[in-house]
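User: Let's play a game. I give you a shape written as tokens, and you guess the letters that built it. Ready? Here's round one.
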């Protein structure tokens, strides 16, 4: 119950309450004390509430802590290590900082302005009041031989970064092709680049880019990588530029290279060359007629040749395709030849001897239709002359040779042709060998050979075959007789030689027997002479008369001979024959008892 009351009617408030109305017997002092205690309690309570409210907004933040405060006028952040007194009447949002390492970056967007930015590591990333992390990505790590093209989607600009290093792309930058390898330049590698501003193409070689490692500049695009085109000593290659001018690269010794070529000194030598194909230039491919061996089967659709039994590989064409998969570097020359023969594409012109087969139908002066088969050997000596006059030299050679043989055979009859067809073909070839038709085209005719001929008409062919069979039979009979005569002759020569050898053998054997006998007699006589000499010399002191000593030796030998005869008769190893009386043989027969 209050200690004072308000006046009931429009009087001022009386500050001193009436005790009688409020408390009865309570005095004014007690009422004041009670009011003072009540007011003090309210103040203390309010203070406690205010203190608690303030202490609830007092925060301690760690190194990666952040508080986003929201008020009616906007947002602000409080971050970092320490204690902070915050406004308790502002909204709060606790956030953690994002730790980015050295190979990471974050894409951040301001939600008020929608502006994107990039924060690159390493760092402890604290966001702004209106920032949001859209993505955390890895940086692009480039090795020493790598590069990357970054395109700004907002402005369309480009920048090229080359390794080694780490690249942090901007938010609006993209890499269409990602990380790419640098091109190592050498004497055998070139690069065609296109400028995106002008659209022009440029050839980059080791001469124009001596650093050896090629990385395109901004707004440069690598069109292709081209290798060095080698031209062998027996080849020639024709290149046409954007203006239509022709350049001949010949492998023959002494051929100079075109302006702008970059070839090392190591390639300088006898024969052969090499070049890089410039941009806007193409290698000219010529369409030559193909005349395969008539004994081979030709596929009319593909122009390929297949040989019947026995199988054998088809002859390879004289050209060497530089790279069949790169048709973009070739331009086909329109052929002006009206030949219906199969065509073949020639990119590298062979400067060696070419071999073309022919099969011509001709008529003799007596109107016999013949089919001639053979080969033509020819060679290209001047590529510029050939290029200026014809696009099908093989077809021109074949056609011109046909007219030459037709004119030559039409002047002789069949009999003359059969006897001397080789001489007819040779004379016809020699008469047209130096024809301006060939020299103007830079062609050198080497030789023409005929390997076979046969009549087209079946009746004539049968008659000719009969004549050939009879001629062959006569030749075979002559050869057989000659062979038999040769065999008989050789047999007679062998017999004579054998008898001569026998005579020589007999004479040699007789001479050898004589020599053996003389040698044996000389040996035996020597022994006897030595024996007589020793016997006579031993009696010199006893008998001085030489005749007496000789008689004594003779008597001794007779006794020795008689002893030998007696021994042989006694052993039965000898036969007894009665000799004439002059042998003085005496037999003493015992008398019978």
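Assistant: Ready! My guess for every position:
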């Amino acid at each position: 119950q209050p200690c004072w009351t308000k006046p009931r009617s429009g009087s001022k408030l009386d500050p001193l309450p009436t005790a009688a109305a409020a408390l009865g017997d309570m005095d004014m002092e007690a009422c004041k004390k009670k009011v003072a205690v009540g007011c003090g309690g309210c103040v203390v309570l309010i203070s406690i509430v205010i203190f608690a409210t303030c202490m609830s907004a007092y925060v301690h933040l760690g190194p990666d802590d952040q508080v986003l405060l929201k008020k009616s006028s906007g947002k602000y952040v409080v971050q970092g290590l320490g204690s902070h007194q915050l406004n308790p009447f502002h909204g709060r949002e606790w956030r953690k900082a994002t730790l980015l390492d050295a190979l990471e970056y974050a894409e951040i967007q301001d939600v008020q302005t929608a502006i994107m930015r990039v924060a690159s590591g390493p760092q402890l990333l604290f966001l702004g009041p209106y920032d949001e992390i859209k993505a955390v990505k890895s940086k692009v790590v480039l090795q020493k031989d790598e590069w990357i093209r970054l395109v700004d989607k907002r402005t369309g600009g480009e920048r090229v970064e080359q390794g080694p290093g780490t690249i942090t792309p901007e938010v609006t930058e993209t890499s269409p092709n990602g990380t790419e390898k640098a091109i190592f330049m050498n004497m055998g590698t070139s690069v065609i680049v296109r400028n995106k501003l002008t659209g022009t193409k440029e050839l980059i070689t080791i001469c124009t880019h001596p650093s050896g490692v090629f990385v395109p500049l901004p707004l440069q695009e690598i069109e292709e990588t081209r290798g060095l085109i080698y031209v062998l000593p027996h080849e020639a290659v024709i290149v046409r530029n954007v203006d239509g001018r022709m350049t001949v690269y010949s492998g023959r010794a002494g051929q100079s290279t075109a302006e702008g070529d970059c070839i090392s000194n190591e390639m300088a030598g006898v024969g052969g060359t090499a070049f890089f194909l410039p941009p806007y230039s193409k290698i000219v491919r010529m369409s030559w007629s193909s005349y395969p061996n008539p004994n081979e089967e030709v596929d009319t659709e593909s122009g390929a040749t297949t040989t019947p039994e026995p199988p054998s590989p088809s002859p390879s064409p004289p050209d060497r395709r530089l790279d069949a998969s790169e048709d973009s570097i070739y331009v086909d020359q329109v052929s002006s030849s009206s030949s219906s023969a199969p065509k073949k594409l020639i990119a590298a012109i062979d400067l060696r001897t070419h071999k073309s087969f022919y099969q011509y139908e001709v008529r003799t002066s007596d109107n016999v239709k013949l089919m001639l088969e053979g080969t033509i050997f020819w060679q290209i000596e001047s590529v510029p002359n050939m290029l200026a006059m014809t696009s099908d030299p093989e077809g021109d050679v074949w056609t011109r040779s046909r007219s030459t043989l037709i004119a030559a055979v039409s002047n002789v009859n069949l009999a003359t042709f059969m006897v001397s067809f080789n001489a007819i073909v040779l004379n016809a070839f020699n008469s047209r060998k130096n024809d301006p038709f060939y020299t103007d085209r830079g062609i050198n005719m080497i030789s023409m050979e005929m390997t076979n001929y046969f009549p087209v008409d079946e009746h004539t062919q049968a008659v000719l075959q009969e004549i050939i069979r009879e001629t062959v039979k006569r030749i075979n009979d002559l050869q057989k007789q000659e062979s038999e005569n040769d065999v008989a002759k050789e047999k007679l020569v062998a017999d004579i030689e054998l008898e001569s050898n026998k005579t020589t053998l007999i004479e040699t054997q007789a001479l050898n027997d004589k020599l053996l006998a003389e040698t044996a007699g000389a040996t035996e006589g020597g022994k006897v002479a030595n024996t007589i000499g020793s016997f006579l010399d031993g009696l010199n002191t006893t008998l001085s008369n030489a005749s007496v000593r000789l008689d004594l030796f003779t008597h001794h030998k007779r006794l020795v001979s008689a002893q030998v005869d007696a021994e042989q008769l006694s052993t039965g190893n000898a036969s007894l024959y009665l000799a004439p009386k002059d042998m003085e043989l005496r037999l003493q027969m015992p008398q019978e008892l």
